[in-house]
Amino acid sequence: MKKEMLFYLSVIAISAITGAAAMYITVGSIDAETTPQTSIIDSEAAFRQNPVTDAHFASQVVSTEYPDLTYAAENAVKAVVNIEATVSVAGRGFERDPFFEFFGYPQGYGSTPRERRAGGSGVIISEDGYIVTNNHVIENASKLRVKLHDGRAYDAEIIGSDPATDVALIKIDASGLPTLPFGSSDDLRLGEWVLAIGYPMELQSTITAGIVSAKARRLGALDNSGGIESFIQTDAAVNPGNSGGALVNTRGELVGINTIIKTSTGSYVGYSFAVPETIVRKIVIDLKESGVVQRAVLGVSFRAVDQQFIDEAGEMLNIDKIGGMYVASVSEGGAASEAGIRKGDVITAIDGVDVNDSAIFLEQIGKRRPGDAITLSVRRGDKELTLKATLQNRAGETSLLSRETVDVVAELGAKLKNVPTSVCRELDIRGGVQVESVKRGGLLERCRVKEGYIITHINDKPIYGVDDLDRLNQSITSIDGIYPNGRASSYTIM
């Protein structure tokens, strides 16, 4: 009997302890649930007082789930294509032919040109077959083959490209194609979810997700002196083959073109970069409408006013406030000069957008055309000024260029001929165009180029003969070549 009583007492004691513990856990759970409810109520009250600043905060408190990316993914993937580029590779440097070397020809002369295939991605932006991609995907391609998401394949032609932004426009002969609408890269927020869509590593349509981890990132990755870099940085996985593919927001809109990764291995290690939609859209319109990029110029040289600037030159220049672009020089007769900008001014904003970084400054100018009017916020000593400027082209005019106006031969201002084979052998070059005479007022005269000079590259593109000049549709920014005596000379046109 005593044993039974002890057993029942033990059961009662255990039940009491368990009940108390359960009550504690239940109270704790309720407290955990009521805490965010209180925050939501507080946020709603604050929202009623200040709906502009607190609406986003209130929504973030309420939402605790990941965004639904299925709509954006399933629709956007239909407009992303695979691009296969066939590139002819010269035999020189790949083979040695003793027969030709015996007769004094350069190493590799006479070896058979080879073809290699390169891959990338692209985005359909119009139902009639216009596709945007990267310049480096289609550069030097002799043939382009585009494969759609549904398996159809087409040959493509190059409409135009821009190495300065690494953007290119191609076209296939098709209609009724699925398209991807442009969104707004300006509206992207840090931490916002995005999708990267493309054809990486020979895989079919592939979608990865990440967040916007930085904007206006400048890397020095574009291999040209006039490169415009203001990349969107994300942690969406991007690998070789993704180049030219889509960066898409949660609404399924194109906000960037995936371009490069920052890696020491050749594969994705956490950082990928895209050309923002503001620049992509502008370049595409230029190439589609006129066949050439309408590059706007403000006419200043500048440097960001950061801590290093303050430490090095702040006291001497009487500048002690970080922010903006210090104007180091002003081109006479340029847009800035006409607007009243002076050397020593600090440009703090363009059309209300703060320009505290050179990448942001370049993007704000790069997304505009000659003839566009902009409003500049300027700090001059203790004064804050607002000045109006009308952007110009490289020729110092506000008019737009056309394909006809960018006649490379006319722009060079010279009588040209193909370089004789004997001269190529003697100088160990594959080809070029030689200057027979220089015309007055032309680019070569302004650069003080002499007769006999052999042009081997224009805008970093190889020139093997006069026919190659017809394939250039951009204003000349650089010329490389060699004189018959073997002296190499390069010219940069600003």
Estimate nothing, just give the exact number of structural domains.
4
Percent range for β-strand residues: 25-35%
- The dominant shape is globular
- Determine the number of helices (DSSP H or I, runs of at least 4 residues): 13
Percent range for helical residues?
25-40%
Q: So what's the CATH class of the largest domain?
A: Mainly Beta
The SS-based structural class is alpha+beta
Give structural notes:
- With 494 residues, the chain is of the alpha+beta class.
- The chain folds into 4 domains: 2-62; 65-293, Thrombin, subunit H (Beta Barrel), CATH 2.40.10; 300-390, Roll (Pdz3 Domain); 408-492, PDZ domain (Pdz3 Domain).
- The chain is built from 13 helices and 24 strands.
- The chain is globular, with a radius of gyration of 30 Å.
- The relative contact order is 0.08.
Summarize the structure.
The protein has 494 residues and is of the alpha+beta class. 27% of the residues lie in helices and 30% in strands. The protein has 4 domains: 2-62; 65-293, Thrombin, subunit H (Beta Barrel), CATH 2.40.10.120; 300-390, PDZ domain (Pdz3 Domain), CATH 2.30.42.10; 408-492, PDZ domain (Pdz3 Domain, Roll).
